[in-house]
Structure formats: structure tokens, C-alpha cells
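Re: [ENG-882] Designed sequences occasionally contain unexpected residues at chain ends

Forwarding the minimal case from QA. C-alpha cells:
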């Protein structure tokens, strides 16, 4: 907690640093790099060099455009500069600029072209390029991993990254380096989405055709991101075409998709819209198989742009429902609705960039009897969450360094209901939160250090907490050589997502504030790694990490088959390391990743379970996958493209039942003929067993044809090609094994207008 005088002093120091915008820091060139009619080019390279008497006379300076296409090169002396922008697959743009007092704006628009010369500044990207836990994801990366659709999906790509664990091919949750889905922050154009991954694990709300760029932090993220203790996925949706109307439709055994885009005002503003619905359930019924899963999603985004700004508004909706086990009596459903707007501007009177975003996000989820769960009063468990959020961030050049600062405010309302008729309980919380952050990016020769700190308001009190963060990158041989990176920081999370630890397959999360007696969750991250280019087209990345999360609410283990939000406090520790190898030569691409990790939960104030006079105060949770190996291969022969993905994982923990009995109420004289009591499972200890090892091969092959002026993309493949019986989970209450998906062949087609 920071006393009020200390907070005032910190804010005064920040204001002094910001207001001191003086030419002493030098001049800057900034702007947006875009593709002709297609919006920002994340990862584009911009290089500048001073020119005197028509010849180069200064040091070559460069920058890489971020997810919104924005770049800035600062610390320049006034004078004449030659500048160029490059991006693979596009013709380079060249110009000559007169840099005088104040910032100079240059926003090139690149035209599609053939092969280009090598660029000056190496852009981040690729599966082996990891820097301090950060993986920069480009749309082209998503299509490298086979998925049961014509285009790729962000969900499938994330599952191919080391340290990312799923409990099965259904459920829609990602566990990142020991964290839980409720501890992940997912942003879409600055707006949070609470459950964006669909119940069928190959799909999310972010198909390849909608993603402009994405930053995925498996840990160690900077001071800008607050409110979560595990990972961050920051997705930027692409913009529609500003030049012509385009449409596409996809048909396959998993999903049917309709998509369109076009200009609102030609050359300056655009729209893009998409709608998808799964068809697994009706197709399975047609062939006499019960696959009770369904999902839908839809998106609309409008954008407008000028040389110095890009603004947009979007609406995103998702819906999932069904049963993860076709023999289960319970069904689930969840609905997301997100409405938001964002404006990124580099105004002429300000030496820097302003990023302002506002949004409202809503999640409604529940579980109940399959015949009644669509009725709100028929749900045995229900949870609703609404967050209103506003953020403003400013970054500016301070000569060779860069200053980043901003603030965020949020208002979260939660409501949950659980229990049977006798124990029904409904509660809610109101969380008012906010944070301010400041950081620097300081290049010191080949070393770049980025220290920062966030000042976070704690709910239910007037106190604030400091969250120091630091990231560092070392390029000893320049930007095209190896990179050594590290990150560390302190993180807090007030919003709590409670799940039933006994039921690893349940997608239900009860969202609430800190339970009585709990403070917020607090995490410490530390990680370090290296990315090494071994030869042309071959890169290797390695990274090790350690993470501790305190104040973790874990529901008390009960033998009765009901959900409880009565938690005990636990500490989570996760340690591990991963390695990635990426090789591309000509038409062939290969990616291999291996991850090792150990996660343990340890009770702080009391045991999780007391059985037979013994207390159990620690266990490895259901997502503790020790070893995970993945191999992806793609061969692109122009009109024919083939791919394969092989996954191997050691068995996940599960709880073996010790026995079963029936408990008779201890008070009064029960009428056993009508009220025999309730069934109970006797556990030996939590997660005392391991499921068998998991492995699966997915393959695909595709081609594109011309149909008049339109393009027809065809893709065929199979999920779980050798039809192995992989365990999804073990139902301890029914003593029954539930398998993951069997062999599923598919054929998908997409028709695109030119």
C-alpha cells in the first residue's frame, strides 16, 4: 500500500517527465505502414539515413511497425533523410523527408509485388522467435498448423506452442505454463473477452481470416497489462478492404462461414463482417452419431484512417452449448458479447502516439440438466459477468529511449448462482478497479532494457499496490544474429474464476471477487531464453521459466457431487523449460517444439482433503502435463499445399476413487425408502493417478482453383488419423472413461470473389 503523499509524488514525477516534451530529445519520424486497400502491416520495416550532398552521411536507423502498423524513429537531428519501408510480398516504398522542428509524419502504402530484396531491419515473428515470453503471431503463421477448415485458427496455433496445455479437444480452455484459463487476459482491439475459445477445441472467435496480428505473452508481460497473473493474448483484428467489395463462403463438416468486406468511403474507411456456425451436431445426427456440441460466432468491424490516425469500432458475439460427454445428463452453454471502439493517433502537435480504447464485455454461462439448461432457472450453476473498460496509453520518443505511460479504469459486475434446491445460493460482486503505468525502453548499444511499474487500485479498499516489471533483450551480433532475453515482474489479479478441481473437463467458471478472507492473487514471474539463427532458414529458440502464484482460491474437496465456492487458500508453483526449432527452405516448412513443466498446488492454511486420518495439502492439478512434443510440417508446391501435425503428451493427473458409499442424514430418523441419502465418492488423495500418454496425428492437403473470376479453395484431411483412443477424462463419480475425438475425415471448400 502506498500512502497518499507517496502517490502524489509519483504522479507529479510522471507529469514532469511527460510535460517536459522538449526538442532536446531530438526530432522523430513516425506514421503507419499499410497495404494498399488492406490496412496495417504489422512487422513492416522502416529504415532512415541522413543524406548530405546526395550521398548517405549518417547512421542507418530503423524501426518495426507494431500490430497497428505504427512505427516511430526518434532522436534525429534536423536535416534531409532518405527513408524506405519494406514488407515481404510487397514492393518497397521510398521517399526523401525534410526533418525539422517537431515530429514528421510519413505513412507509406505498399503495393503487392513478387519477391523482394532482403530487408534492413529483421522483423519479429515465427514460431521459434520468442523474446521474454512474447510470441508475435502473424496471419501467415496460423495457416501452417493443420485445422479442420480451409483457413487456420488462432486456437489451433496457440495449442502448438510449448507451455500451452489443453485437457482435451473439447472444453475451450488454455492452461499456460501452469496458469488457468481464468488467469489469462484476452484482448480483441483493446476489449477483454472472457471465454473466446469454442467448445470444439479447434476453433476460437479468431479465425485466420479475421486476425491482423496477435501478441501472445506466456509470461513476463510489461506494465501495460494488469489484472491477470498468467498470460496475455492481445489480438488486433484486420480491417476490411477500402478499395472493393469482397465476399467469401466456406462449407465443411465442422463449420459453415459467410464473410464480406468493402469500403464505406473508398480509400479511407471500410467494413468487415463474418458469421460462423458449427454443423457437427446435425451432420452427426444424419449418420446416426450423437455429437452434442454446437457453437456460433459473429463479428462486425468498421474502420477509418488518415495519415496520422486509425480508428475503429467492433462488435463480437459467440455462443456455445452442448455436452462434453454424450452420455452425461448435464449440458453447458456460454455466450460472449463484446462492443468496443479504439483510436490510435499521432497528431501533428504531439511528439508521440495516443491509443484510446473503450469497451463493454459480457459473459453469461451455465450448466444444468440437458433437458432444461436453456431456462435460466433450470441451471444448477450459472455465472454472469459484465465489464466496462476504458484505457488511454501514450508513447513518445525521448531521443534514443522511448517513454510509455497510460491509465486504465474498469467496472466489473458479477453474479453467480449454484447449488441444488436445498442449498441454492446466489451472490454477486461489484469491482471498481483502475491502474496507471509508466515505463521506458532504453537501448544501451546491443542491450535494450525496458523497466516499468504499474500502480494498481485494490478493490474493497482505498489502497494501491505497485507492480514492478522489467524486460531485457541483448543482440550481441546485431538484429540478424542471436537474441538473449529475460523478463521478471510482479502481477496481481482481483477477479476470481472458480472451477471444480475434481472435474477437469468442465468448462464452467464461476466469476466473482476475492472470497471472504482472501486478498487478490499475486504472482511472481521470472524467465530467460535465447533465439539463435543457425543457418539460413533454420532458427532455434529456448526458454526457461519459474512462476509462483499466491492467494489462489481452491474449492474444498467434497465427496458430494456438487459445486462449491468455499475455497481454501493455495500457492501454485510452476517451473519448466521449452525448446523450438523452425526450419524453412524453399517450399518446405518444419516446426518442432518440446516443453517440460511441473505445476504443484500447496495449501496454505488448511488441507485440501482429510481422509483416513491423513491430511493432503499438496497435489499436481489436472493440467500438469510434464512432457509435450509437437511436430508440424507443411509443403507448399504452389497450387498444392500439404500439412501434418503430430502431438505427443505425457498423461495428465486424475483422481482415482478409493470407494463409494451412501451417506444418511445424521439428524432425525430418516425414511430410507424415500430418502436413502446421497451417494459419496471416497478419494484416497487428490490427483493420485496419471492418465495414459496422449498422441495424435492430423493431416491435410489443399488446392485452389479458378471458377470464372472467383477462387475456389479446397481442403481435405483427417483428425486423429490412426484412430487412437486418447482419454479425455475419467469420470470419478460414474467410474467411466471418456475418450477424445476418434478418426474424423473432412472435406472443406471456400469460394472467394476477387
Amino acid at each position: 500500500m502506498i500512502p497518499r503523499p507517496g502517490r502524489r509524488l509519483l504522479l507529479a514525477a510522471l507529469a514532469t517527465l511527460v510535460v517536459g516534451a522538449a526538442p532536446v530529445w531530438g526530432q522523430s519520424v513516425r506514421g503507419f505502414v499499410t497495404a494498399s486497400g488492406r490496412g496495417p502491416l504489422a512487422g513492416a520495416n522502416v529504415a532512415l539515413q541522413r543524406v548530405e550532398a546526395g550521398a548517405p552521411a549518417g547512421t542507418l536507423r530503423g524501426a518495426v511497425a507494431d500490430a497497428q502498423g505504427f512505427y516511430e524513429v526518434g532522436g534525429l537531428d534536423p536535416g534531409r533523410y532518405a527513408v524506405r519501408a519494406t514488407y515481404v510480398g510487397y514492393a518497397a516504398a521510398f521517399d526523401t523527408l525534410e526533418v525539422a522542428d517537431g515530429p514528421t509524419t510519413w505513412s507509406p502504402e505498399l503495393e503487392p509485388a513478387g519477391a523482394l530484396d532482403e530487408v534492413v531491419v529483421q522483423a519479429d515473428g515465427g514460431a521459434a522467435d520468442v523474446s521474454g515470453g512474447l510470441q508475435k503471431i502473424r496471419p501467415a503463421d496460423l495457416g501452417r498448423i493443420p485445422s479442420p477448415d480451409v483457413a487456420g485458427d488462432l486456437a489451433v496455433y496457440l495449442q502448438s506452442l510449448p507451455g500451452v496445455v489443453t485437457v482435451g479437444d473439447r472444453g475451450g480452455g488454455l492452461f499456460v505454463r501452469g496458469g488457468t484459463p481464468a488467469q489469462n487476459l484476452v484482448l480483441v482491439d483493446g476489449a477483454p473477452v472472457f471465454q473466446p475459445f469454442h467448445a470444439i477445441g479447434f476453433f476460437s472467435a479468431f479465425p485466420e481470416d479475421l486476425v491482423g496480428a496477435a501478441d501472445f505473452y506466456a509470461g513476463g508481460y510489461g506494465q501495460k497489462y494488469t489484472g491477470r497473473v498468467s498470460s496475455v493474448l492481445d489480438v488486433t483484428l484486420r480491417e476490411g478492404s477500402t478499395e472493393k467489395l469482397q465476399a467469401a463462403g466456406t462449407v465443411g463438416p465442422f463449420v459453415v462461414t459467410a464473410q464480406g468486406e468493402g469500403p464505406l468511403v473508398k480509400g479511407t474507411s471500410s467494413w468487415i463482417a463474418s458469421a460462423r456456425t458449427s454443423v457437427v451436431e446435425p451432420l452427426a445426427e444424419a449418420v446416426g452419431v450423437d455429437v452434442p456440441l454446437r457453437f456460433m460466432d459473429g463479428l462486425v468491424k468498421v474502420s477509418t484512417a488518415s495519415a496520422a490516425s486509425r480508428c475503429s469500432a467492433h462488435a463480437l458475439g459467440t455462443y456455445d452449448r452442448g455436452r462434453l460427454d454424450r452420455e452425461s445428463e448435464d449440458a453447458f452453454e456460454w455466450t460472449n458479447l463484446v462492443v468496443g471502439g479504439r483510436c490510435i493517433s499521432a497528431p501533428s502537435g504531439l511528439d508521440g502516439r495516443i491509443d484510446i480504447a473503450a469497451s463493454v464485455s459480457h459473459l453469461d454461462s451455465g450448466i444444468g440438466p440437458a433437458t432444461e439448461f436453456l431456462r435460466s432457472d433450470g441451471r444448477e450453476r450459472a455465472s454472469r459477468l459484465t465489464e466496462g473498460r476504458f484505457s488511454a496509453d501514450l508513447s513518445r520518443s525521448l531521443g534514443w529511449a522511448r517513454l510509455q505511460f497510460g491509465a486504465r479504469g474498469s467496472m466489473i459486475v458479477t453474479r453467480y448462482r449454484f447449488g441444488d434446491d436445498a442449498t441454492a445460493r446466489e451472490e454477486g460482486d461489484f469491482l471498481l478497479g483502475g491502474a496507471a503505468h509508466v515505463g521506458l525502453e532504453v537501448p544501451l548499444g546491443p542491450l535494450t532494457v525496458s523497466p516499468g511499474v504499474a500502480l494498481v487500485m485494490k478493490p474493497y479498499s482505498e489502497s494501491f499496490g505497485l507492480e514492478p516489471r522489467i524486460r531485457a533483450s541483448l543482440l550481441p551480433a546485431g538484429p540478424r544474429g542471436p537474441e538473449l532475453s529475460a523478463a521478471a515482474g510482479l502481477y496481481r489479479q482481483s477477479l476470481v474464476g472458480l472451477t471444480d478441481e475434481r472435474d477437469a473437463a468442465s468448462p464452467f467458471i464461476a466469476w466473482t471477487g476475492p472470497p471472504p478472507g482472501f486478498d487478490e492473487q499475486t504472482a511472481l514471474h521470472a524467465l530467460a531464453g535465447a533465439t539463435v539463427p543457425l543457418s539460413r532458414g533454420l532458427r532455434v529458440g529456448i526458454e526457461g521459466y519459474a512462476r509462483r502464484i499466491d492467494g489462489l482460491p481452491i474449492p474444498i474437496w467434497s465427496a458430494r457431487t456438487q459445486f462449491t465456492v468455499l475455497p481454501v487458500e493455495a500457492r501454485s508453483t510452476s517451473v519448466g523449460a521449452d525448446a523450438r526449432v523452425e526450419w524453412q527452405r524453399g517450399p518446405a516448412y518444419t516446426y518442432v517444439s518440446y516443453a517440460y513443466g511441473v505445476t504443484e498446488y500447496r495449501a496454505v492454511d488448511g488441507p485440501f482433503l482429510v481422509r483416513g486420518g491423513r491430511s493432503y495439502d499438496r497435489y499436481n492439478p489436472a493440467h500438469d502435463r510434464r512432457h509435450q512434443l509437437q511436430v508440424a510440417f507443411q509443403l507448399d508446391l504452389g497450387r498444392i499445399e500439404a500439412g501434418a501435425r503430430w502431438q505427443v503428451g505425457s498423461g495428465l493427473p486424475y483422481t482415482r476413487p478409493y470407494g463409494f458409499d451412501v451417506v444418511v442424514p445424521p439428524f432425525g430418523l430418516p425414511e430410507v425408502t424415500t430418502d436413502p441419502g446421497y451417494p459419496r465418492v471416497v478419494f484416497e488423495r487428490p490427483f493420485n493417478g496419471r492418465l495414459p500418454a496422449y498422441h495424435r496425428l492430423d493431416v491435410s492437403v489443399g488446392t485452389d482453383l479458378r471458377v470464372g473470376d472467383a477462387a475456389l479453395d479446397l481442403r481435405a484431411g483427417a483428425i486423429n488419423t490412426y484412430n487412437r483412443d486418447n482419454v479425455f477424462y475419467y469420470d470419478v463419480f460414474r467410474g467411466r472413461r471418456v475418450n477424445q475425438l476418434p478418426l474424423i475425415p473432412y472435406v472443406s471448400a471456400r469460394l472467394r470473389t476477387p
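QA comment: On inspection the terminal residues look reasonable. Helices lie at 4-19, 139-142, 154-159, 280-286. Proposing we downgrade this to a documentation issue.
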